[in-house]
Every structure is written in C-alpha cells, then in structure tokens.
Write a structure and sequence with these properties.
alpha+beta; BirA Bifunctional Protein, domain 2; Rossmann fold; Translation Initiation Factor IF3; 3 domains; eleven-stranded mixed beta sheet; five-stranded mixed beta sheet; 14 helices; about 35% helix; RNA-binding
RNA sequence: CGGGGCAUAGCGUAGUCCGGUUAGCGCGCCUGCUUUGGGAGCAGGAGGUCGCAGGUUCGAAUCCUGCUGCCCCGACCA
C-alpha cells in the first residue's frame, strides 16, 4: 500500500479521506454510507467517551439504554420533529425471511408483516419521552437526568467517513425538569461541558452560541451549539444542546404534580455529540505527513523505536527501552515499544507519524553509550537528543506542551480566519475564501435563506456572550442588534 | 431524484477504440540471503469467475442488450 498522502493544498477532501483510511481510523463498509471503525480509530473514540462520560456523571447524570426501534406512531406525535426527520428514516416492515420458492436466494416473507412498522432511531426523544411518562408523577421525581450511549441511523444521501455517515455512534442526554429556568440552565450547562471537552481534550477551540430558527433542532425551542473552524476554512458543528420547552412533554403527556398540587408539564432538554468529533479532530490538527493527535486522546502517546544492527544490539536496546516504557507507564503515559523486527526504523518513523503519535523516542547503540534518547515531536516535527536522566518528567512535560500548543495553533488559526464585514460585496468575497464572517443580520429566516441560496453560507451561531453592537443587515439593510457568525459548513 | 464517469489479483492500474498466444505492470503478501540512526536491496514465489446475466462469433476483458454496484457534481442534510 502506498502510504503517500494527498496534500491539503492539492485536494483537501482527498487529504481527509486518505488520512482516515491510511491512519487506520475507519473504512467504508459493504453497506452504503456505513463505516467500519477500526481499532485505532475506536481507541480514540473510547478516550473521548471516557472523558465525556465522566463529565456527565460529575454533573449528576446517569446512563441508561433505550431501544433501537421506535414505533412509527410515536414519531408523528411532535409535528416539527417528524417533519425534521421523516426524510431520512430507515423503516422495519417485516420480521422474517424465507427461501425464495422460485429459485435461489432468500426473500422477505410477506406473511411476516409488522402490524406497526418500526423506525430505526434517528434520535430517541420520542421513545424516551413515552417512557418518561411512566417515570414521572411528582416534583419529587425531578430532575430526571439520563444519558445514553448508542448508535443512530439517518439515511443520508451523501456520506463521508465520520463527518456524515448513515449510521453513527453518539451519546444523547435527555433530561426532565420542574421549571423552564432549570431546563434552560441544564441546556446551557451541557453546552459548556461540550465546549470544555473540545477545548481541553481535543485541543479544539470552539465558539458557543445559539442557532437561528432555520438551523434549530426539529422540536426544540432553542438550540445551543459549539462550532469549530477546520483548516480549509469551513465550519463544523461539533455539538448541540437543546432546550425543548414543553413540546415533548405535551406530545407524550408527561405531567407532574407540583408542590402546589397542580398538574404541570415538565420542561425538557436533550444534547448530543457524535463520532463526527473524530472528523473534527482529524481536520483541525493534522498535516501533510498524517494525523496529529492531542496527547490526551492519543491511544499511544509515546512510541519507542529501537535501532540496531544485530540481535545482540537489539536485546541491549530493548532492555533499555522496556525500562523507559515501565517508568513512563508509572507516570500514566501510554507507551508502545515497537519491537517489530520485520520493519526498518525509517518505515516505523513514517508509520507512527501517519498515525499521529505525539512523541517518538528513537534509541540505538549510540544512545546506549551516551545514556541519551532521540525524541521527536509530532506537532512541530522537531527532534532533539535528551539525557535519560528524569526522562519521565521530560516526557510528561512535553506531552503537556504539545496539548497546549495544538490548542494555541488552532486558536491562532481561527483568529486569523475570523473577519468582520459590513457590506454585501465584502461579505460574498470573504465567504468565498472561507473562515468565520461576523456580520449584521436582520434576524429573519427569509434573509438567512436568501443568503444561503446566494452564497451557500449559513448562520453558524448567534453569540451568547460578547458585546451587543447595532448595525445594518448586510443583505437587507434593516437594523440589527448584534453580529452573527456566518460560514460555509460541513 | 437529475447530469457525468467507473467496474480487470488485497490496493492502484494497462489492455477495450480496431475481438486472436499463458491478461501485463506497480504497491502489498510469502520464502531466503544481505540490510537496519528517515518509507531497504537482490533472488525466487503465491494470488484473476476481467461486476452479473444473456447474445453475436471458430474465438469475447474487448462487440451488442439488459441488470447490479460504486464514485464525482447537483438537489437533500441539525
């Protein structure tokens, strides 16, 4: 297999595809639109899951599991929800196969038709709210704070590994509250959890904000989001958190008896991040040599490559390498000693670079004599030779520096690619070149739609914080109270 | 769903126009020897229903018909 990557400049999407497949993250499967996540890619996802799951638990949530199948009738109970998802649902109609009486193969047994068809969940609000009805009677049952890790299916026309697949993995939080304010606070809290995760674990700076009506979740009153900027200047929605108001409570008749002995509908939120985060991770830090992983999420943080001329030398180097590996592991560092004798060092260097391992230690006979090791950073591609004295501390410090450097680089990139514009000509010109464009908008869905049709850019978010500033809509010239972020998006 | 393209070994491809030996090449794979501080070299070897089904022909990867699958662009998409 040729390991050469397409360069970003040459063809950014091809570079992304090459990276995902050649770094062994995932591959296309026999099922159209569905991917196989390979062990190395899944290892990164598992790290993400662990960190997020802890953050959910720390904020009082518990995990549970709801069915993959949803009765079709549930779907139609919340009008805008159905409308949003109807076009991309996989439907189960039968429950049995039989041998084809006319010849070879196997066919659907028409006698085994389901009385009520089942939808494969594109999201679980309906089945969950139908269940919550039975769980909630009194204000004493609230708040109900549940998360589930699951797969969902959305029948997408065009798919790309991690970024948009027909089936994907995610978590979905679904909470029920006594009051509107409490639910709003929950939705905002989870948005900040996502933002913190993106920034601290993925080294990915994100903007926090609110979606416009056009981009809002089907069935939500308000959708909060985090948005990141990819290296090609396109925005990527990395997570959403929804304030659902009482929409689902009313649709599924979920009421509780308040302290005042009154029947009231509960207030709801839902929030999720998916394997799409893997795409964001790849596209924000990687380079033309391959993947670049932030140390906190890298399945392997340090790889040790031995250099030797014969078995005797290998044994000596291996002994030292194993000693270093054990020392590092005591400090919680994930280390791999690449002892394969079937590959040359140069090959291993290239391979681990492609796979984005943050630090590489190369050790040979010369190092044994001088008690040193060559250490190479994946993020800067810098190499230096270090004394083995206190190597654990040096490695731990370097990993920390790499994590911070990746974040800073991504933040600098975003700052350099965020622009304020105040007229239509400048807007269209800037949008074409990529990046976030902060501009005034009159607040109407019609204007947003027109802008989308003419430039393919959408409002990525309306900032939650930051100064208000009056101005005129770049499209309609109508008055505006604040700037919003536009970009072309994934 | 519209427009265009493709289907030959695990991957990438030549050959198809103009039918004719044993379907060729690169990467990868296997064996051996030499190598090993940035993607090793040499030698030997394995691996093919040429997407599927029909048809034309003495003879089809190649020509004809139908089908299937995939890719790109558009539409669609939280």
């Amino acid at each position: 297999m040729a390991k050469e990557l397409t360069t970003r400049e040459d063809n950014y999407s091809q570079w992304y595809n090459d990276l995902v497949t050649k770094a062994d993250l995932a591959e296309n499967s026999a099922v159209r639109g569905c991917m196989v996540i390979k062990p190395y890619g899944y290892g990164i996802w598992e790290r993400m899951q662990q960190a997020l799951d802890k953050m959910f638990k720390d904020t009082g949530h518990e995990n549970a599991y709801f069915p993959l199948f949803i009765p079709k009738s549930f779907f139609s109970k919340e009008a805008s929800h159905v409308e949003g998802f109807a076009k991309e649902c996989a439907v189960v109609t039968h429950y049995r196969l039989k041998n084809d009486p006319n010849g070879k193969g196997i066919i659907v047994d028409e006698d085994a038709k389901l009385e009520e068809e089942l939808i494969i969940r594109p999201t679980s609000e309906t089945i969950i709210w139908d269940t919550y009805r039975g769980w909630i009677q009194s204000y004493r049952d609230l708040p109900l704070l549940i998360n589930q890790w699951a797969n969902v299916v959305r029948w997408e026309m065009r798919t790309r590994l991690f970024l948009r697949t027909a089936e994907f993995l995610w978590q979905e939080g679904h909470t029920a509250h006594e009051t509107r304010d409490e639910a709003l606070a929950e939705a905002e809290q989870m948005l900040h959890v996502y933002a913190t995760f993106a920034e601290e674990w993925m080294a990915l700076p994100v903007l926090r904000g609110v979606k416009s009506a056009n981009e809002r979740f089907a069935g939500a009153v308000e959708t909060y989001c985090i948005e990141a900027l990819m290296q090609d200047g396109k925005a990527l929605q990395a997570g959403t958190s929804h304030f659902l108001g009482q929409n689902f409570a009313k649709a599924f008749d979920v009421k509780f008896l308040s302290k005042e002995n009154k029947q009231e509908y509960v207030w709801a939120t839902s929030w999720g991040v998916s394997t799409r985060l893997m795409g964001a991770l790849v596209m924000s830090h990687s380079d033309d040599h391959g993947l670049v992983l932030p140390p906190k999420l890298a399945p392997i943080q340090v790889v040790i490559v031995p250099i030797y001329r014969n078995d005797e030398q290998f044994d000596q180097v291996a002994a030292k390498a194993t000693e270093i590996k054990e020392k590092l592991e005591k400090h919680g560092v994930r280390v791999k000693f690449d002892a394969r004798k079937t590959h040359k060092p140069g090959f291993k260097f290239a391979e681990w670079e492609l796979k984005g391992v943050p630090l590489r230690l190369a050790m040979g006979p010369r190092d044994l004599e001088s008690n040193t090791v060559e250490i190479a950073r994946r993020d800067t591609l810098e190499k230096e030779t270090l004394q083995l004295q206190d190597i654990e501390q040096k490695v731990v410090n370097l990993l920390d520096r790499i994590q911070k450097n990746l974040y800073q680089k991504a933040l600098d990139f975003r700052n350099e690619n965020t622009f304020k514009v105040d007229n239509w000509e400048a807007f269209t010109d800037r949008i074409e070149k990529g990046g976030f464009v902060m501009a005034h908008w009159d607040g109407t869905p019609e204007t947003e739609q027109k802008i989308k049709e003419e430039t393919k850019a959408t409002i990525r978010l309306i900032p939650m914080e930051g100064k208000k500033e009056t101005g005129k809509c770049i499209y309609s010239g109508e008055p505006s109270e604040q700037r919003v972020y536009f970009a072309k998006a994934y």
